[in-house]
Amino acid sequence: MIEGTKVQGVLVNDTPFRIGGGKTSVSKNAFQQTTDSAMMTRKGVPFIPGSTLKGFMRGLVESIVKTKGGEVVYPYEEDEKDEKKGKPNDIVSQLFGSKSNASAVEVMDAMPLETPTVHTRTMVSIDRVFNGQYPSNLYSLDLVDKGNKFKFTALLWGVKLNEECKGNDERGEVISQVIETMKSGFQIGGRKSTGLGLMRLTEVKCTQFGLSDVEV
Questions:
Q1: Distance between CA atoms of 214 and 216, rounded to whole angstroms?
Q2: Where are the domains of the chain?
Q3: How far apart are CA 197 and CA 52, in angstroms?
Q4: Three-state SS letters, the chain
Q5: I need a surface site. Which of 9, 206, 207, 215 has the fewest CB within 10 A?
Q6: CA atoms within 13 A on the CB side of 107
Q7: Is the dihedral of CA 159, 177, 90, 106 positive or negative?
């Protein structure tokens, strides 16, 4: 019995990126001190949280559904009547969950294939009133260098994709579009407006699995 599809691949960052906490208060010696973490780390090694990737995927599915004139129901907009209806009708809730059903998309943390290289970049704060550099407000960001590779794994429960990662129903077709977009390039993390966080999903492989076959 087919339970779903495992999507595997390798994420490559074409520009530096960071996924971490926001900028902290900056002191006069900020030039010598890093004031932001590069990204989430596990035992000191940077990785891409599965929640970050899943959040991007959900946002993209919402955009696709809206473009097609479909309904998008946000979890916080559901009322008690919606909860009692059982399985929701909208694709986003079916794929990513709601108050009444579990998520069908499970995205693992993307761990690096090799220890990523990191560099520190000094930044300046901009005074939005005078459109110039804010005095004495230098700060530093740790960034993961471009060209690093991370293992991507997602389990799609109840969603069938063939070996070419093409779906045979509405949910499968939407996820297939998400995969194609990720192959073309997408952005995650902070400071996307400055060009950071450009990623590509490469070496993509889709494999249907049964419940006993699941091994991440």
A1: 7
A2: 4-19+45-114+149-213
A3: 12
A4: CCCEEEEEEEEEECCCECECCCCCCCCCCHHHCEEECCECEECCEECECHHHHHHHHHHHHHHHHHHCCCCCCCHHHCCHHHHCCCCCCCHHHHHHCCCCCCCCEEECCECECCCCCEEEEEEEEEECCCCEEEEEEEEEEEEECCCCEEEEEEEEECCCECCCCCECCHHHHHHHHHHHHHHHCEECCCCHHHCCCEEEEEEEEEEEECHHHCCC
A5: 215
A6: 18
A7: positive
Point out the least confidently predicted range of 139-148, 167-176, 179-188: 139-148
The pLDDT assigned to 181 comes to 97
11 neighbors 152 (Cβ within 8 angstroms)? yes
pTM: 0.80
Q: Residue 45: CB partners within 8 Å, gap ≥ 6?
A: 111, 112, 115, 116
Span 192-211, average pLDDT = 92
What does each C-alpha distance from 110 to 10, 153, 181 come to in angstroms?
Answer: 9, 7, 18
The two tokens of residue 20 are: 């971490």
> Band of the pLDDT at 125, cuts 50, 70, 90?
low
Residue-wise pLDDT tens digits, 20-65: 754 444 444 443 444 555 457 888 889 999 999 999 999 999 999 9
CATH topology of domain 4-19+45-114+149-213: Alpha-Beta Plaits (3.30.70)
pLDDT tier at 98 (50, 70, 90 boundaries)?
confident
